[in-house]
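Self-study notes.
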Amino acid sequence: MLKKIIVTSLICLFAIFGANADTLRENHVINITRLEEKLKTSSLNEKPLIYNQLAREYLGVSDEKSLRYARNSLNLSVISDNRAEEAHAYYIIGLAYYNLDDFDKAGMNFETALTLEYNNNNPERLSDIFLHLGEVYEQKRNYDSALAYFQKSIETEQKSGNPNRLGNRYKELGDVYYKSGNLKTSLEYYFTALELEEKEDSIENIADLHNYIGIVMLDLGNYEKALEHYLTSLKMMEQLGNKQGQARSLNNIGIVYYDWGNKEKALEYYQKSMLIEEELNNERGLSGSLNNIGIIYADWGQHDLAIDFYSKSLDISKKYGDKIGIAQTMNNIGESYFGMGKHDKALENLLISLEAEKQLGNLPGTAVSYNTVGDIYFKLNKPDLALKYSDSSMAIADSLGLTAVKLSNFKLLSNIYAATGNNKKAFDYLGLYTQLKDTIYNRDFLDQMTKIQMKYEIDKKEQEKDVLIREFKEREKIIKKQKIYVFIIFFSLIVIIFIVFYDKRLKQKANLGLKMLNNRMYTQKNELSQTLTLLGQSEEKYRKLVKNSPTGILYMNTSGKILEVNDKMLEILGSPGEEKTKQINCLQFGPLKEAGLVDDILKCIETGELVYNEKPYTTKWKKKIEVRYFITPIKDKEQKITNLILNVEDITLRKDAETALIRSEMKYKNLIENSLQGIFVLQNNRLTFANNRMTGLTQYTVEELENSRIAWYDLFVHPDDREKARLMGESEIHEKLSEEIRFVRKNGTIRWIQILASPFDYEGKMSQIIVAMDISGHKESESILVESEKKLKEANATKDKFFSIIAHDLRNPFNAIIGFSNLLISSYETMDEQERKNIIKNISEASERTYKLLQNLLEWARTQTANLEFHPKMLDACVVVNEIIAELKPHADNKKITLISEIPFNTQVKSDENMLKTIIRNLISNGIKFTHPGGKVSVISGKKDHDTMICIEDNGVGIDEKDKNRLFNPDFQLRKAGTAGEAGTGLGLVLCKEFVKKSGGTIWAESGAIKGSRFCFTISGEE
C-alpha cells in the first residue's frame, strides 16, 4: 500500500517561503526605524516612495502592515500624479495579497500595476509583474495562463539583456509543468535553469535546483539520480551554512532510502531533518518530517505511535492552511486506522484525502489515493470496487510515468485477479510487477546507490580532513613558537653555566658529561619517537577498524560506565552523540534493561564467560529492532574481570527478510496447496513437486508421486494418452500447451483431465509447470448429450416406423376384412355354402393376422417408450418351450412340419416370462413360416460363457447373407412370403431383439441360402 510522503520544496511550497515570518530580522528593524524617522520630515512628493519602501520591508513579516503602507503610498501617488510609485504600490499590494493566499485580489492588483508599468519604461519591474502573475495563475491551477506569463517574463529579460534572472524564470516553468503532470518537460526546464544558474555561480539557487530535479527523478523512479542530486544539494547547503536547505535535502534523501526499502536509513535522515527544523522553529518544515517518521512506524506495525506523529503533522498543516499536507496526512492516518482494524474510520479518512487531492489538481497524489483506496477495498473482500479504484490510479500513473505507483498497482491488480479466479490476468500483472521491480531494483541500481552515498561520505570526510589539516597547521605554528621559547631558555641556561662554571677543567668534564647525557637522551628520544609512531599507527589502525566496524562496539567497566563507543553502536542505541552516550550507565539504562541486556551483562561479570544472545530492542526513538550481541569479559593478570566489550549487530533486516520469506512461502504454498486444480512440476518427465489436489485426482499420496522413480505418464496416465503426455513433458516450446488426457487412478478408475503446461526455470533447471483440471463431469455431460441425441434419433425413427406400419401394414388386412365382409353381405343369397365358408375363413385369417400385427406393434412401442414392465424370475426353459410348441402345433400340422424340443428338463433361466414366450413364439413361428411341408423345426439349448443359449433351427429356405445383418433393424423389414404364401408383420425379429436386450442377452442369426436358418439368443441362467 502506498503511503503519502511529504517531499519538501515542491509539494510543500510553504515550507520554504516565510520560514522566519513570525519575527523581524535585525536588518528589517534598522531599515523600518530609519524609514519611519525619515517619513516624519519628508515632503508630500517624497512620502509615496518611503511608504512603498516601508511596505516592502513588512512583506512576508506582517503583510497587513505592508498593505496599509502600500495603500498610503497609492493614495498619495494618485494625488501627486506619481505614476511610477502608483504602479509600485499596486505591485506591492499584489505581493501582500499573494502572501495572504488571496490570489484573486493579488491578480487584480498585478494586472493594474502591469497596465501602469507599460508606460514607465521599467523592464525589470515589468518582468517581475509577469512572473508574479504567472505564480497567481499557477496557484489557481490555470496552468496555460501561468505558462504564458512566465514566457513573457523570459522574453522581457532576454530583450533587456539581463541573463542573471533567467534561471529563476525557467525554474518557474519547470514548477508549472511538474504540477500539471508533464514530468519530462518539467525536468528539461529545471536543467535549463540549472545551466543558467551555474553560469552565474549562484550557489544557493543551484542547490535548490538540484533538489527540484531530485524530486522529479524520484517520481520517475530513477532513484540513483534522485539521490545524487539530493546529496549535491545537501553538500552545497552545508557549504553555505543554510540550515533550512540542509533540512529539506535530508528529508528528501530519507524518502529515497524509504522507497529503496532501507527504512532504518530513511528514519536516520528524517530525524536529522526534524532536529534542524526544531532548531529553526520552522513548523511547516517540521510537519513534513513528522509525517514521514510516522510512515516508518506505521510500516513497523506501531500504528498508535504513527498516528501520534501524523496528528502533530496534521495540526501544523491545518494551522497554516496547507491543503496538500492535510490531504496527504489524512491518507496516512486512514491507512494506520485500517492496520488497527478500524475499517470505517480508515475509509472515511482515505476518501476525504482522495477528494481533496482531486480538488487540488494534484495528479500524483490523486494516483496514490486511488491506489490506497483500491487496496483497502481488496482487503475488505470487495474486488469489484478495488479494481475500479486501481484502474483509475493506473490511468494517471501511466500518463505521468509514476513508476512507484505503477509498481504498486501491478501488484494490487495481480492480487485482485487471483482472488476473482482470473489466473491468466493475475499471472500477467505479476509478471509486469516483477519485470518493473527488477528494472528499478536490479543489482546495478543497488551498487550505484551505494556508490553515490559513499562518494558523498568520502567528500564529507575530505572536507573534515581539510579542516583537521588546517587545525593541525595552526597547532604546528604554536608548537614552533613554543620550541623557539624553549630554545631561548635552553640557550640562556647554557650561558649561565658558562659564566658560573668558569673552570676549564670542570667545564670540560661538564661538557663531556653533557655530551654523554645528550647522546643518551637523543637515543631515548629516537626510541620513544619510534615507539610512539608505531603505537600511533597501531592505535589509528584499530581506531579506524572499531569506528568503521559494521557492528556496534561498546567498551565499559564492571560498574556500567562506558569507556569507548563506536558510531555503529550510537546508531543502534539511537543516541545523539558519543559524549552524551558516555554519560549513560549501562547497568541503569532503561532500554538495555527492558531488552534484558543488563541481565546478560551481570551474568557475564558473575560467571566470567562470554555471553551470546538475540533479542528485540527499542531505541529512544521508539524504533523496534532485533539485535544479536556478544558480551566478552576482559581479565587482568589475576583473572579478575576489569572491563567488558559489548558487540551488537542489528539483525532486523535479516529477521524481517526471514519473516517475509516465510510469509511469502506460506502464502504461495497455501494458494497452491488449496488450489481447486492439481498442480505439479516436471523435470525430464519426472514429477518433482505435486500439490494436495493431485492426491484426489490420482489417489496416490504426494510422497508417492514425488518419490516415484518412473516417468509420470507411466505412473497414472492412460496407455492411449501416454505418448501425448510424454511429448508435453519434453516440450521446449516457450508457450503454454493444452491437452485432454485420461488419468488412471490407483484404484483403476479413469478420470478425464484438462492439462495446461507452461515452461519455466525451476531450481536452475528447465521445467514444466502443469495445471490439471478434472473435466470428467464435462466429458460425461458430452457423452450423455451424444447418447441423448442418438436416442432422440432412434425415437424419431421409431415414430416414423410406427406410423409407416399403421399407414401401410394395417391398411391391407383391414381392406381384406372390409372387402370380404361387403362381398358376403351383398352376395350372401347367391353364394353356396362352400363359398360362404371360404369368405368367412379369409375374414378370420385376416383378422387373426391383423390382431397379431397389432399386438406386436403395441409391445414394440412399449419397449421404445420404456413403459414395458420387466419382472424377471427363474423359469424352466424346457417347460416354456413345450408350452409354445403345443400352442403352435396345429399350424405346424397343417403344413406337415415336425416341431421338436431338445431342451433338457430343469434348464433354469432368469427372464420375464411373457417376454421369453414372445421371443420363442416369434422365432418358432418364423421357422414354420419359412419351412417347406414335411420339414422340421427344432429347439435346442447349450452354454455360451456363463449364460444359457437357446437356438431355433429349421431346414427351410434360409436367409440371404446380405439380409442377415439387417434382420433386427427396425428400419429394415423383410417382407418375404412364407412357403405357403404366409404374410408377416415385419416386427417379430425387432421385438425379439428388444426383449433379449431387456433380459441382458444377445441375439443373432446363422443361415445359408440352401441349408435353412438358425436363430440363437443368450439368457442368464443364474439366480
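Second protein, same conventions, sequence then structure:
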Amino acid sequence: METRKYSPYKIYLPVLVLIGVAFSLLWFTGISPLFISAGLTLTFLAFTLYLGPRMFRVEKQLNEHLENEHLFRDLLDAQPAGIYRLVQIKNTPAHPDALPELYYQFLNIQHEYITGINNRDLLENPQLIATMIHDEDLNSFVDTNYRAVKNRSLFNWEGRIVKNGETRWLRIDSTPRLLRNGNVLWTGIIIDVSKYKMLEQEMERHKDFERILNELSSHFVNIKIENFDRFIQKALQRVGEYYSTDRVYIFLLDEHQEFAHNTHEWCAPGISSQKSYLQNLEYAKVPLWMQTLKNFKPLNIYKVEEMDKDWEVEKRILQQQQIKSVVSVPIISHEKLIGFVGFDSVKEHRLWKEYEVKMLKVFADLIYNALQRKEAEVQLLESRRMLRSVLDTIQVRVFWKDLNRQYMGCNQYFAGDAGKENPSALIGLSDAMLPWKEQAEAQAQLERQVSDSGLVLENLEEQRTLADGKLHWVKSTCIPLRNAAGRIIGVLGTYEIITARKQAKEKLKASEQKYRILTENAFDGIYLLRNKRFEYVNPRFCEITGYSPEELMQPDFDIYNMFTQQGRELVESRRAARSRNEEIPGIYEVELVSKDKKTKDVEISTNPLYTPDGFIIMGIMRDISERKHNEALRNQVAIANQTVIFKQNFLANMSHEIRTPLTGVMGMIEILSKTSLDVNQQDYLNTLRYSAGNLREIINQILDYSKIEAGQVQLKPKAFKSSAIFDNARKLYSSICTKEIILETRIDPSLPEYMRTDQNRLTQIINNLVSNAVKFTLKGKITLEATLEKRVGEKEFEVKVIVTDTGVGISPESMKKLFQPFEQIEMEDTRHFDGTGLGLSISKELSRLMGGDIWVSSTPGKGSTFWFTFVAEDTCSKAAMKESDKGKLVASSKNLSLKILFAEDKIVNQKVITLMLREMGHHVSIVQNGKEAVDAFLPGYYDLILMDIQMPEMDGITATRNLKEKFTNLPPVVGLSANAFEGDREKYMKLGMDEYLTKPVSYEDFENIINKLFNHLGQ
C-alpha cells in the first residue's frame, strides 16, 4: 500500500499564517503595535515560503515551452512547402457577395521564398497575395477562393505566379477549421510544382511527336512511289515546324560510300536553300563528321563557332551556311551507314535535349524504312514489268494472291474478266470485291486447302460470274506460291473459260424429267416442239389452251388449229424463216383460240435447242389478255388525261387572251366614267360597264369550274364575323337589282358570333344564289337566312343558308339538269336570261368542298328556295378580330404621288394603265419589256415597279430576278398577268414578286395594292 508523503510546507505554512493573522488582529483590540509588526512579518514569511518554489516551477515550464516553439518553427521553416495559417473573422459583410475579413496568423520562411512576397508585408496586408498571380490565372484563383470561403470547403488551386519576372507554377491546398469564437482558421501549404509542370510539358511534347511519327509511318505504308518524294518533303516540314528548326534535310551515301547527296530539303520561311550547293559531298572533306555518324552516334553541336580545332573543316562548311546549331542523326541499314538527317538552326542557337535527339533518331529510322520500301517497290515494279510481258502474251488467265486472299497480280486477260482496265487495279483486292463475289467463299476454301496442304489442285470445273454479268464455266488449276526459302506465301492460279463446251454438254444431258421439274409449277406455259409435234407441255400450257397433255401430244394434233387465221400466218412465216436460217425475234405476240373457242392474246418466247436427236424448239407461252385489256384502259386514261391537260391549257390561254384586251376595255370604262358625260353617254357607259362585268364574270366562272374539275381548288379558311356573310350579298343586291324587289336577311341568334372558314368561297356561293334570285324574280322579295343546323364537334358546327325568292320558279323537267355544268334553265324556247350555266354547278362543288351540299325546291310561277350547308369552326372574338385585322390599312395613301416604272408590251394596256395611274396622281415611265426595265431602272428614283409577267425578249420574272441581283435596295415589284388559275399569285411571289395583280385591273385594285405597300407613307 502506497504511503502518503506530507510536505513540511503544507503543515507549517498554514500555522504561520494563522499566527500572523492573530497578531494582526491584536491591533484592533488596542494591544501594542509590536504584535502587529510581528504578525505581518510572520504572514509575509509564510507567503514567501509558499510562493517561491511555485514561481520557480512556472519559469522553468515557460522556458521549456519557448524551446519547443523554436523547435517547431525551425521544423516548419525547414519544410520544402510554404505553410500558412489564415484567420477568417466572424462578421457580416456589407454586401452579400463580399468576403469576410481575412488576416494571416502565421507564415513560415519557405512561404516567402516560394511566393516572393515578404512575410511581414503579407501579415500586414493579406491582399498582397493576389499580386503574385499570373494575369491569365487570376480569375480562377479568385473564383476558387470565393467558393471555398463562402462554402467553408477545401481550397485547392493550381496555377501560375510571376516571381521576379519569372513564371512559376504553384499548387495551394488549405483546410478550414471552425474556432470556438466563431472565426474560421485556414491551415494550408504552398508548393512550387514548376519542375513537375515542365516535365509534364516535355512528356506531352514527347507524346505529340510520337503521334506525328505514327501518322507519318501509316502514310509511308500506303504511299505510292510517284508520291514518295513529295511526301518525304512534307514529313521534313512537319518535323521541322514541330521543333521550330530552320532547315531539315536528308543526305544519302552512294554504294561506294565516297560521296553524299542532298536528296531532300525543307527550309523555314526566310531561310535559303543549300541543296544545290551540297551535291556530291566527299567524305574526305568532313572526316570527323562522317566518322561519328559511321559509329552510329548522333552529332549535337550547340554552338558552331565554339567547335574544336579538329573540327575546323566541318566548322567552316557550317559557318558558310550561317548555321549556329546543328543536329545530325545517322540512317542505318544492316549495321551500315547509308545516310543522315540534319537539323540546322540558323536564326539563333538551339540546345537539343537528349530525349529530343532520341526522337529524331526514331524519325531517321522511319526515313530508312520508307527508303527501303521505295527501293523494294522499284525492284518489284521492274520484276513485274518483265513478268507482265510474258503473262500478257498468253490467253490463259493467270493470277496470284497472298495468304490473306488478296490479289498481288494477274495478267491482262484475267483483269478483263474482272472488269478492270489493267492488272494493277486488282492489287490488294479480294474476290468479295469482284464480279464473282458470290463464289468468293468457295474459292477461298479451295485456295486455303492448297496453301495449308501444299498440294496442287488441277482441272477443277467451277462456275464464275465475270464482268459481263454472266455465269461462266471455267477449268482451273491452283498451286502453292513459295518464296526463295520455300515457305508458302500465297497461291498461284490459272483458268480457262469452257462455257461453250459446258453448255453444249449440259444441253446434251437435258432430259424430259429435268424439264418437268423446272416447269411443273411455272406461271407461264412451257412446251417442247419437234417437227410441229409437242413432246412436252406443262400444266399451265394446258390451262391456257384448254387441251389436255394427251390431246396436245397426239401425233395427228394440228397446232395450227390453236391460232386464228392471222396467227397461223405469223407462225408459219416464222417457221419458214427459221428453216432458211434467217434471224427472227425470239418473242412475239399472237392470237390463240382455246379448245372452248375463246380468243386470247398470248406472248410466246422461243429458243432453238440442238440435241443429238436433232433440232428442237423450247417455247414459253404467257397469257397477256389481261395485260392487253389494261393497256387499252391505260391508253384511254392517257387520252383522258391529255384531254384534261389540253382543256386546262386551252382555258388558261383563253383566259389570258381575253383578260389582256379586257384590261383595256374595263380600264377605258373606268377612265371615261371620271370624265364629264351627258345622261345618254352615262347610260351607254353603264351598259358597257355591265357588259364588260358580265364578260369578266363568265371568264371567272369558266376558270372556277376548270379549277374544280382539275382538283386545284384549295380552301383558305380565316376567321370573320358571322354577320359579314350578308354584307357582300347586300352590296351585290344594291348594285344589280333595278326591279321592285325587297331583300330581307335573317340570322339565327344561336349562330356563333365569329366563325372560321373560307369567306371568299362562301361569299361566292351566296352571291351566285342571290344573283340568280334577282335574275329570275320580276317583283316581290328575296329572303336570305342563315341558321345553326347542328354541332359537328367540339369546335365545329354546320350552318344552313337559305335563299328564297318569289320569282318564276323552275319546272320539274328543268330541276333534273339544274346543277349540271353549262345548263341554262329557260321557261320557254326563247332565251331570256344570260349566263354560262356554271354558277349552280360551281356552288354545288364548293359547298361539298366546305363539308356540305346544296338543294333546291321550286313551284313554277310562285318562286324557288335554294339552301346549302357548310361546316365552320367556332372561334373566339379576340382571335377572330386579330385575324380579320391582318392586312388592314391604318391609313390611306390616296394623296401619295409615286414614281412608277411600268413594263408592258401591249400598247393598249400601256395606255389604259398609265392613264389610270396618272389619274391617281402618280408619275409613270413606260418600257416595252423586261430588258428595258433592267436598263431603265435608277436606284433611289422609282418608288414602285409594275412588271408584266409575259413579255418578249425578257419576261417579267427574269427581269425581276436580274434587278434583285444587281441592286440591294429595290422598291416593291408588283407582277401583272392575265393568269388567274389557283396558285398563280403564290407561284409568282415565290419567283420574286412582292405582290401580284390579275388583269383586268381597276382603280380599286391599284388603290388597294398601293395602300398595302405604302401604308407607312400614308401615316
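Instructor comment on the second fold: The chain is about 45% helix and 25% strand.
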